[in-house]
Design a protein that fits this description.
A: mainly alpha, B: alpha/beta, 13 strands, elongated
């Protein structure tokens, strides 16, 4: 297992696109907490009762809330990681290095597992990065709370990790299916766009909630419910439902199985 | 010597096309073995199947007298069609990947890079290499694990004469280390220069297997002439073991049945009262024999 992660690292490390996308992704993550300061000030000024107003506070960084807020917003950047994985996987087919790997003695299932493990590895790194970001910004701007309360909603980090894995596995599957990096990226992005329309139609026009939930992209964002309603005093789901978790884990299994099947079925 | 590779009715269909048809092969260890055939004769498809990248339609194969699968491939160094590496990565970065797949350390890297004369260029991008350098790096990668067998598919394709000479020298050196080599090529000349025995494939079927130097089981040809050509032509046509007579620059080109040669022809004609002014056995080049074998079937 260590060997397979090391193998992927050797493949990714010298690639420029890998670092460009990863650093861009991280830069975006850092930029968000900085840029929402103004939004927070506006909500405080216009919506909060006078007695709750505090100096030097950013609403979004309140501990307990910060885990859900950060992970929810950061989900929208996962598309960068998905693109990264698509290029990383699909170029192995267009350059034929996948073929040479098998000739050199990698088994086809090892080829798929090395990608899956690499995805898990990146998801873990990114999740840790988000944890650090949350602690830093929470530490700077949250009103002081006890350490018990501070980590109360930390389970959203786990949900975010699953979201990252599911989304990147979907990208890996698209890459294995399409095999040409450029076309695969277009298919991946176009699918996301198409599904967001389908989601609106299915959920709101037809009212089929469960079907809407089952859409692959919708389900990766289904674990972490929108926290922003609380700022206009609406109820917000702050737990992760079993139903959503089962759907996500189910997709993780399906994408691995389908990728494995494609890999074994096709010539390289 | 053990068996390097054995195939049993190995077959590959692409839709209606049969790329390899019921191929039975037995290649012994410790020799340079040629796989000869025109483009599209099934050489690469066959090698693709035995190297695990092309799914076979039916039949099976074993390496080293009974092995199969990824662990076996780790003991083989192989290049199919063209050298494949990440173009943006250096030779060293690419070889590290190969070593990780084979599960070996990189202590052998300097040795193999020096062997193919790429050590000085080891930190340059693969994409910036010339075709000859790319081929040499592929050979270095194949040799990295100190393989039991080396498989080379068209290793000199597209190279200039100097590049071809370099690759051939490397192949001969590797053969000298006692490694088994399978060399697939559409160039007879290449097989003739480095291989001890070979097979010839045509449209996915085996049409010849044997030693490269031996007579490939075809008829002999003799060129003859005499002052009276019309009489000679008649005499040749009446000779029982003459298969075919064609007019050539210096008289007639005569194809003889197997087992007959210039001596028996000359003796027969003398008995008929013909005296020859010119008699020459034409040694067929491998090229001609190859074309004959390929066109015959």
């Amino acid at each position: 297992m260590i060997r397979l992660i090391q193998l992927e690292w050797l493949k990714a490390k010298p690639a420029r696109f890998f670092w460009v996308l990863l650093l861009l992704f991280m830069a975006l993550m850092i930029s968000v907490p900085i840029s929402v300061q103004g939004l927070s000030d506006w909500i405080i000024k216009n919506f909060l009762p006078e007695n709750l107003k505090l100096d030097n506070v950013n609403l979004f960084y309140d501990f307990q809330d910060i885990w859900q807020n950060f992970t929810f917003v950061f989900q929208y950047f996962t598309v960068f990681l998905g693109t990264l994985i698509i290029i990383h996987v699909a170029r192995e087919f267009s350059l034929k290095t996948a073929r040479q790997n098998i000739i050199d003695g990698l088994s086809k299932s090892e080829f798929v597992w090395s990608k899956v493990l690499f995805i898990g590895f990146i998801a873990l790194l990114v999740t840790l990065f988000v944890a650090v970001l949350a602690l830093v910004f929470g530490g700077l701007f949250s009103p002081p709370v006890g350490s018990a309360l501070m980590f109360e909603n930390v389970h959203f980090l786990g949900a975010y990790f699953i979201h990252l894995v599911q989304d990147m596995l979907f990208a890996m599957f698209v890459a294995m299916l399409v095999r040409k990096p450029g076309i695969a990226v277009v298919v991946y992005l176009f699918y996301a766009w198409l599904e967001s329309f389908a989601y609106l139609v299915i959920k709101h026009a037809l009212g089929w909630d469960l079907v809407a939930k089952l859409l692959p992209n919708a389900s990766t964002k289904g674990l972490i419910h929108t926290p922003m309603y609380k700022y206009v005093l609406q109820p917000v789901q702050t737990f992760i439902s079993w139903e959503d978790l089962v759907i996500s884990l189910g997709y993780i299994g399906v994408f691995i199985a389908l990728s494995m099947w494609i890999m074994k079925k096709r010539d390289l | 010597m053990g068996i390097l590779l054995e195939t049993n009715k190995l077959t590959k269909h692409y839709g209606k096309l049969t790329a390899v048809n019921q191929l039975d092969l037995k290649i012994e260890e410790g020799q340079v073995f040629g796989m000869l055939g025109p483009n599209g004769s099934g050489k690469t498809t066959t090698l693709g199947m035995v190297l695990g990248v092309t799914e076979r339609s039916s039949g099976d194969f074993t390496w080293f007298g009974g092995e199969n699968g990824p662990e076996t491939r780790k003991k083989i160094g192989a290049i199919l069609e063209r050298p494949i590496f990440f173009p943006g990565y250096s030779a060293v970065e690419n070889l590290k990947i190969v070593a990780k797949i084979k599960g070996i350390n990189t202590t052998n890297m300097e040795h193999v890079l020096r062997m193919v004369q790429l050590y000085e260029r080891r930190n340059d991008r693969f994409g910036a290499y010339s075709l000859g350098m790319k081929q040499r790096l592929a050979i270095a990668a194949a040799m990295l694990c100190d393989p039991k067998a080396l498989i080379l598919d068209e290793p000199t394709n597209g190279l200039d004469p100097e590049g071809i000479a370099q690759i051939r020298e490397i192949i001969v050196n590797i053969a000298g280390m006692g490694k088994s080599i399978i060399l697939a090529s559409h160039l007879l000349d290449e097989v003739q220069k480095v291989c001890s025995s070979c097979i010839i494939l045509r449209k996915g079927e085996l049409v010849f297997q044997g030693a490269v130097s031996a007579d490939m089981g075809t008829s002999k040809r003799v060129e003859v002439d005499a002052p009276e050509q019309d009489l000679l032509r008649e005499a040749l046509k009446n000779t029982p073991f003459v298969l075919d007579v064609e007019v050539s620059k210096q008289g007639f080109l005569v194809s003889l049945e197997a087992g007959q040669d210039a001596f028996t022809l000359n003796k027969y004609l003398q008995d008929q009262g013909m005296v020859l002014s010119h008699l020459q056995t034409l040694k067929k080049s491998l090229e001609e024999q190859f074309l004959e074998i390929v066109n015959k079937s």
